[in-house]
Amino acid sequence: MTFMTTLSGDESPTLLAGEVPFDISEMFFSRTDNCGVILAGSDVFRRVLGLDWENLVGSPHNVMRHADMPKGMFHIMWEHLKQGHAVGVYIKNRSKDGRFCWVFAVATPTDDGYLSVCLKPSSPILDKIDEIYAQVVTAEADGMTPAKSSQLLTELLQSEGYANYMVFQSLALVTEVTSRAKRMERPVEGWQTRFRLMADSIMDIQNETEQMLHAFRSIRTVPMNMRILASRLEDSGGPISAISVNYGAMLGEMMSWVQSFSLGDDSPFARIRNSILKGQFLAFTALVQSDMVRLFNVRGATVSADFDIKTENELLRKQTAHYRFMATRALKIVELEVEHLARSVLDMKRYVTGLSSTRMMCKIESAMLEDSGDALAGILDQLDYCQATTEMRLSRISELNGLIQANTDMLKATA
Ligand SMILES: Cc1cc2nc3c(=O)[nH]c(=O)nc-3n(C[C@H](O)[C@H](O)[C@H](O)COP(=O)(O)O)c2cc1C
Fold first, then answer.
1. At what angle are helices 373-414 and 238-262 packed, to 10 degrees?
2. Which range among 287-291, 337-341, 378-382 shows the weakest confidence by mean pLDDT?
């Protein structure tokens, strides 16, 4: 472990090992100017760092930087903040005495700088993040730039199933807030459950579409097999051949519907997922900020010499209101996207109906054929199965979409 920054007033610190006490019921906040220079913070912040206000105020925030933190992570953090976005980050901090303190920080831009509220992470995500950070730090030690290592970090998160950083920070924040509430035996509020239901529903929709694509791929060779069969039947195979062409075209359309729905960063699926998770992240950002205000009020607090608790309280309240508003705005996008999906599912249902009539024609032809009826019946069984499961999956997608729609409406109504 190496020290990154010489702490002011830190001539000969006695170094300790282990973790700085930071109770699950505690939280801390800090506020900086536009360059990340600390302007104010709560007393827990100062205690965890082990510094006096004189040494803290005016110092850059990297005064608490721990060598186990990858540069790429701060690159992601600053990119979000500079673009005016809130960001959630697992940060391992270093105290003046050398001990560490993990936090989940929710940092947001203010009118003239940035503000961060930190809670103690207590979910299993932390262990995974610790591993990921270690890999990125190793890559950086081999000369990888922060811009490149931020990409590596994102890829490592993707390999854990988080499609992008928004998805990660939203799920991580919710998981940490929920885990903290559980440890503190606090109830989970209704709106939190609604967001979780919506996030789960969109993931279930993804699963249904993936299964549909899989089913279509497995019958991709059917039209070709029908054509082979038709060619063996010579003249009497004409109708089968025509049906196979029809079938092939419909299958192609259905596959391209599923692909364009679910693949890529700008697919309807990705847009709904991103807007739900963004709404969730913003609503939980407002929640931790309001919790910080509550803690100020319950415990009383001191903040740096130059600012008073009233100023910080007001700022946090303003931030809370802003992020609640932003969460509602994200929900409006969810609303538009789910309406769009509902219409799109109707298109897909039409394809399936078309498929059904083609299949009926195929059945009639099969009954009329004496020798090759069995081969055609086998193909038909495959198609029957694919059609039945597609219909089932489409109904499930409509149901899940309806669930998202209903929860969006309720969240908006109670916002
Ligand atoms: C509001 C805010 C809160 C921050 N909180 C921390 C923190 O808790 N720990 C930390 O190491 N860096 C924090 N940073 C990031 C630091 O400014 C800095 O980018 C980071 O420590 C990396 O330092 P370096 O750029 O000198 O490598 C914060 C920045 C802002 C704007």
1. 20
2. 378-382
